[in-house]
């Protein structure tokens, strides 16, 4: 069975990045994110199937492979729901023999995890990915991906955030220097990856008691993983001639790459939120170089974005390696943060949290007014004004007022028999608690002026 991906060469409209910014605050257009990905960076949108051949997904996620959803065997190919958007993208690049591509993808992924709704953890959720595949100058794509990540998180105005960054070759060198057998590198990395959730004592116990690592070896690892700080400052420490990582060939090469990366990020104006953190491990098996994850300071949802370089993943499907780097943003986690912030603001201000963007409620006094409400509402829709009219034939005024207040609708258009006979309506400003009489033929212009103010 051949699984294909659909490539869209036009801009997604609206893009999820725009929706994210718009959902947070309607005055923030989010155009930075849209323009950056689809226009400024020349990225195309790709949509891959939600299911893949099981063999495509297995062996890519380390200990997290147990979280893959397998579909029932119906006598054909063995299939599974996609765990992320990265592996399907790598398969697409391999199958279509693509050399260079920048892509972004917004889609659902599936994990047999324990849901924690207040922490944005679900079994079905959206991810938003941006990746660059192909041969380019060292660290240029990595810097561009990180610039996009920093730009998006800044544009969303979620609050102070940190992008933790490390290099997979540094991790491997740390383990080698500590005396970890090569066959245990990935299991030990999976343990290190839990340091953002568990204290060192718990992680050390897992290394020693569950993974069979000698205690003294774990203690050497512990001396490395406590190192973190401002990128260039920590880089200066690690590149000192007497530091073990500077003496190791692979880690020395990784440190040289990071020095270049930090220069590029500084040029992009994106170095500020970066924290060079040797405890960052990222448990997925396919990472080969720079790795990173973003966390919101004071947040309660874990990482909100993560990614890294995966130069060998495409080659697993085609036999020909294509270098690639990317980032994934967890949409539900971002929304969980937005919702918590919105509720806090609402509680402080006493305003309602709006479930809709309705600008005007068309209301009436008396019976037999539904058709007129529909006519006026249609007129407002045609002018681009977001309006509702209510489905009840003869609604009570108290109910209409209550609905407008509950939903936070800023304006009401009111009329009864007297207003209709005189060709006017009343426009009620819900916040100012004022009313003014407006001719029906001037209603659209008046509302547009009020909404633009």
Mind explaining what this structure looks like?
The relative contact order is 0.11. The radius of gyration is 27 Å and the shape is elongated. It has 18 helices and 17 strands. Helix 6 (168-178) packs antiparallel against helix 9, helix 6 packs antiparallel against helix 12 (249-268) and helix 10 (231-238) runs antiparallel to helix 12 (249-268). The protein is of the alpha+beta class and 453 residues long. Helices cover 41% and strands 20% of the residues. The strands form three sheets. The protein has a ten-stranded mixed beta sheet, with helices on both faces. Strands 14-13-15-16-17 form a five-stranded mixed beta sheet, with helices on both faces. A two-stranded antiparallel ribbon has the order 3-4. Helix 15 links the parallel strand 13 (360-364) and strand 14 (387-388). The protein has helices at residues 16-24, 31-40, 54-57, 86-95, 140-156, 168-178, 185-192, 200-210, 215-225, 231-238, 244-247, 249-268, 315-318, 331-349, 370-382, 397-407, 417-422, 443-452, and strands at 6-8, 44-47, 51-53, 79-81, 101-110, 124-133, 161-167, 228-229, 274-277, 290-296, 303-309, 324-330, 360-364, 387-388, 411-415, 424-429, 434-439. The model is unreliable at 1-35 (pLDDT under 50).
Name a few traits of the molecule.
453 residues; alpha+beta; ten-stranded mixed sheet; 41% helix; 20% strand
């Amino acid at each position: 069975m051949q699984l294909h991906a659909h490539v869209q060469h036009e801009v997604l409209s609206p893009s999820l990045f725009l929706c994210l910014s718009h959902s947070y605050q309607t005055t923030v257009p989010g155009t930075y994110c849209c323009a950056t990905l689809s226009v400024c960076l020349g990225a195309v949108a790709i949509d891959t199937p939600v299911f893949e051949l099981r063999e495509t997904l297995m062996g890519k996620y380390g200990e997290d492979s147990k979280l893959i959803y397998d579909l029932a065997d119906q006598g054909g190919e063995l299939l599974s729901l996609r765990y992320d958007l990265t592996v399907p993208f790598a398969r697409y690049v391999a199958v279509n023999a693509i050399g260079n591509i920048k892509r972004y993808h917004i889609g659902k992924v599936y994990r047999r995890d324990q849901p924690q709704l207040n922490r944005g953890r679900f079994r079905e959720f959206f991810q938003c990915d941006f990746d660059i595949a192909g041969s380019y100058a060292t660290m240029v794509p990595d810097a561009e991906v990180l610039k996009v990540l920093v730009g998006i998180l800044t544009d969303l105005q979620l609050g102070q955030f940190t992008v933790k960054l490390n290099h997979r070759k540094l991790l491997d060198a740390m383990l080698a220097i500590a005396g970890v057998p090569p066959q245990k590198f990935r299991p030990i990395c999976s343990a290190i990856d839990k340091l953002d959730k568990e204290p060192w004592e718990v992680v050390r116990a897992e290394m020693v008691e569950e993974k069979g690592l000698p205690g003294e070896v774990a203690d050497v690892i512990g001396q490395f993983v406590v190192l973190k700080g401002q990128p260039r400052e920590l880089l200066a420490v690690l590149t000192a001639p007497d530091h073990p990582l500077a003496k190791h060939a692979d880690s020395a090469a990784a440190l040289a790459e990071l020095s270049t990366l930090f220069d590029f990020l500084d040029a992009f104006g994106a170095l500020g939120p970066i924290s060079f953190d040797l405890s960052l491990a990222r448990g997925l098996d396919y990472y080969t170089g720079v790795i990173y994850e973003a966390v919101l300071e004071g947040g309660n949802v874990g990482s909100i974005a993560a990614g890294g370089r995966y130069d060998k993943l495409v080659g697993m499907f085609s036999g020909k390696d294509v270098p690639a780097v990317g980032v994934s943003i967890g949409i539900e986690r971002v929304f969980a943060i937005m919702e918590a912030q919105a509720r806090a603001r609402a509680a402080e201000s006493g305003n309602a949290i709006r479930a809709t963007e309705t600008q005007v409620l068309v209301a009436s006094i008396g019976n037999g007014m539904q058709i007129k409400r529909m006519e006026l509402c249609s007129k407002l829709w045609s002018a681009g004004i977001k309006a509702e009219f209510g489905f009840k034939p003869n609604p009570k005024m108290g109910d209409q007022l209550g609905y407008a207040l509950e939903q936070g609708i800023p304006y009401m258009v009111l009329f009864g028999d007297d207003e209709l006979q005189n060709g006017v309506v009343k426009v009620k400003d819900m916040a100012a608690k004022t009313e003014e009489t407006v001719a029906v033929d001037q209603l659209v212009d008046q509302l547009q002026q009020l909404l633009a103010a």
